[in-house]
Amino acid sequence: MGEDARMDEVFARLAESRFRRRFRLRGDDLAYQRRKGMDTVLRHAAELIASRLAPAQPPNDGKQTPMRGHPVFLAQHATGTCCRGCLAKWHAIPKGRELTEEEQRYVVSVIARWLARQERDAPPPPEDDQLGLGVG
């Protein structure tokens, strides 16, 4: 199964979860993404995944991803990429070993897909905030 087909299957299952589908990119997180741009947010995603999720035994696994404070954190909860247990459950990436470079790229791709869809579906910034700075 190719990566796109794999993600399609995962996103279909995530859509059936009441917990996962309740997440929406809005407010400060949406403004941050619009202000910084997707390239910067995804660079942050790669750094966060490498430091917080990729180790074989991440510190505080299951509690290492805040619920707010960065668009990536929200995306991780929405996509089941927030901890090693969720990675195993939703993405069939086993716990107890370090994530490969390919697996880390896959996780960032999942996050990118969710963030892009959320930004596309979000209302435009107010007329007096066309730069998406979150002020108006």
Summarize the structure.
With 136 residues, the protein is mainly α. The chain has seven helices and no strands. It has helices at residues 3-15, 18-21, 27-36, 38-53, 71-79, 84-91, 101-121.
Strand and helix map with partners:
Elements (H helix, E strand, L loop, with lengths): L2 H13 L2 H4 L5 H10 L1 H16 L17 H9 L4 H8 L9 H21 L15
Question: What does this protein look like?
Answer:
This protein has helices at 3-15, 18-21, 27-36, 38-53, 71-79, 84-91, 101-121. It has one domain. The protein has seven helices and no strands. The protein has 136 residues and is mostly helical.
Taking pLDDT < 50 over at least 5 consecutive residues as the criterion, the unreliable ranges are none
Structural class: mainly alpha
Computed Rg: 15 Å
- What's the main sheet like? none
Q: Percent range for helical residues?
A: 55-70%
The overall pLDDT average reads 91
Total domains: 1
Number of helices: 7
Q: Say how many strands there are.
A: 0
Tell me the β content. Answer: under 5%
Q: What would you call the shape?
A: globular
What is the helix/strand order?
A: HHHHHHH
The first-to-last residue Cα distance is: 46 Å
Observed structural traits:
136 residues; mainly alpha; 7 helices; globular
